[in-house]
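Our preliminary data section would be incomplete without showing what the modeling component actually yields. Below, a chain of 384 amino acids is followed by its predicted structure, encoded as tokens that our downstream tools consume directly.
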Amino acid sequence: MWWARTEFRRITVYAWQWRTVMRLANLDGRARGREYLPRLRRTRSEGWRDRVRVRMVKGQAPEQWEARASGLAHSFRARSCRVRVIKPGTIELDLVHSDPLAAPVTLPQLGDVVDLRRVTVGRTETGKPWRLRLLGNHVLTVGATGAGKGSLLWSVIWALAPMVKAGAVRLVGVDPKGGMELGQVPDVFDRVVYDGGEAAVTLLEQTAADVRERAGSYRGVRRGWSPETGDPFTVLVVDELADLIAYQPDKRLRERAQGALQTIASQGRAPGLAVLGFVQDPRKEVVPFRHLFPTRVAMRLDEPTQVDMVLGDGLRARGASAHEIPESTPGVAWIKQDGQRDPMRARAFNITDSNLVELRHYITGTAATVIPFPENTTHGGQAA
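Predicted structure:
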């Protein structure tokens, strides 16, 4: 029983050495010759982690605990320690012992009902569905080569398949890699371009024009898109975003692409358009308008400093260790959404070549052969 395990660990792991650890970690306080210790409150053991609630000493800040998280993890024999604020003066330590996302997440059957505010694309480490908001939102995903960015891309399209088939969602894609990713199932896209040149920029400008036209038609009638408008919800998928807005050697094309994407990202949410952008390099000079993406996803990153570049300042200190995601777990990511202080850890569904064949057949009604990824495995494009 969980309560027996909780009580056993509370006594044997935390209570008996609490005073010593707090002193050695310099988390105690002294005033007028009196010692003040953080109070060990409720403890709950969930197998893969222990949740330890703490009442901080007066004058302490959560940042002091974040700075000592690594030492606390080692002191309590945990793999890592994350600090979450519960309420003023009270924090909770997540002392993690194992990884519940070590195994691939099985893809569910194609569904019938799609909620654009809650699109299920995987599972969180707590066992709950990982749901992305697309309506009124844009999503920027950053990850090193092989991090599994394509797993998220195809998980989104898989979840949207019923609406794509019905014409209620329209997919528009740009794949500067010559179709290595989006070209696997081209028929599901209303429009798709397989290069980063003139054709791609023209498609982006057409999409920006669609945004302005739709916004104009809603003027004085409604404040935002809804299914009642009769317009399809549009999802713009841009794989390797940097090829268009940073690495494009033609300055004129690069500036046109940046201008169109900024228009889409800044004006597209209300008229019913969501951008899914994928990139490897998170530097500001590569994606200067990343602040226009309310949801940011950090898959495996190369350097610790990149975590805050992607998710926001201070997120690595709160436990978002995207730079420590193993290569053996593609699709694992840390997610930060506007309005939420703490990041979430999750893993996208495991998408195979046969799943892509099924997806294409479901949407188009035409059986097709999908070009396999190396070693005949995709996990939604691990090579992305």
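Confidence is low (pLDDT under 50) at residues 368-384. The CA atoms of residues 206 and 354 lie 33 Å apart. Preliminary results of this kind motivate Aim 1 of the renewal.
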